[in-house]
C-alpha cells in the first residue's frame, strides 16, 4: 500500500464522513498491519459497526452548525476512554450547548474532550476564558491547518 512507503505507524482517516465511505475493511487492514488508526467522524454514524481497536474522534455538532440533529443518538454510549469527542464552537450559545452536554453526561469521565472555535468567529482567547471560568474539563485546540494554510485551503 502507499501508506507503507511512509515512515509512520499512525494514520488518520478524515475528510467528509469517512464512516459513510465503506472504510471498515481499510481500517481493519491498517490495524492488522500494526498501524494506530484514528478516524475523525461527524458523530452521525454508529461506531459499533467499525473495528473497536481504532480510535474515534466524534464531533458533536453545535447549534450554529445547523447540524445538531444529525448526531447518532447512541453515540455517547458507544464512545470509549480511548476515543475523543470534539465540539467546534461558533458562538456563546454553542459553548453553553456543549457545556450542558458535557455536564449532563459527565463526559470527562467517559472519554477525552476537545473544544475549539470556528475559525474567524470567536477569538480563541475568549473561548479559553469561558472554559477556565467554568472549570470545564476539556482540552482546547485550534484548527491549526487554518492558521498554517489559511481558512480556504482544502485537502490539507
Can you describe this structure?
The protein has helices at about 25-30, 75-80, 90-105, 105-110, 125-135, 145-150; strands at about 10-15, 35-40, 55-60, 85-90, 110-115, 140. With about 160 residues, the protein is of the alpha/beta class. A 6-stranded parallel β-sheet has the order 1-2-3-4-5-6.
Please supply descriptive tags for the structure shown above.
6 strands, alpha/beta, 156 residues, 6 helices
Q: From N to C, what is the helix and strand string?
A: EHEEHEHHEHEH
State the distance separating the first and last CA atoms: 21 Å
Which structural class do the helices and strands define? alpha/beta
Mean pLDDT: 87
Order of strands across the main sheet: 1-2-3-4-5-6
In brief:
The protein has 156 residues and is of the alpha/beta class.
How is the secondary structure organized here?
Layout: E1 10-13, H1 24-32, E2 36-41, E3 55-59, H2 75-78, E4 84-89, H3 92-104, H4 107-110, E5 112-117, H5 124-134, E6 139-140, H6 144-149
Amino acid at each position: 500500500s502507499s501508506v507503507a512507503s511512509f515512515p509512520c505507524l499512525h494514520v488518520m482517516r478524515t475528510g467528509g464522513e469517512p464512516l459513510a465511505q465503506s472504510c471498515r475493511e481499510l481500517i481493519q487492514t491498517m490495524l492488522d498491519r500494526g498501524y494506530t488508526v484514528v478516524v475523525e467522524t461527524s458523530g452521525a454514524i454508529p461506531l459499533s459497526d467499525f473495528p473497536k481497536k481504532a480510535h474515534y474522534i466524534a464531533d458533536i455538532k453545535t447549534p450554529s452548525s445547523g447540524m445538531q440533529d444529525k448526531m447518532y443518538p447512541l453515540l455517547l454510549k458507544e464512545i470509549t476512554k480511548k476515543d475523543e469527542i470534539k465540539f467546534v464552537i461558533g458562538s456563546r450559545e454553542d459553548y453553553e450547548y456543549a457545556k450542558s452536554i458535557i455536564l449532563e453526561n459527565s463526559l470527562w469521565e467517559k472519554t477525552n474532550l476537545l473544544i475549539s472555535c470556528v475559525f474567524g468567529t470567536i477569538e480563541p482567547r475568549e473561548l479559553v476564558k469561558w472554559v477556565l471560568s467554568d472549570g470545564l474539563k476539556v482540552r482546547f485546540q485550534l484548527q491549526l491547518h487554518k492558521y498554517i494554510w489559511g481558512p480556504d485551503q482544502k485537502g490539507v
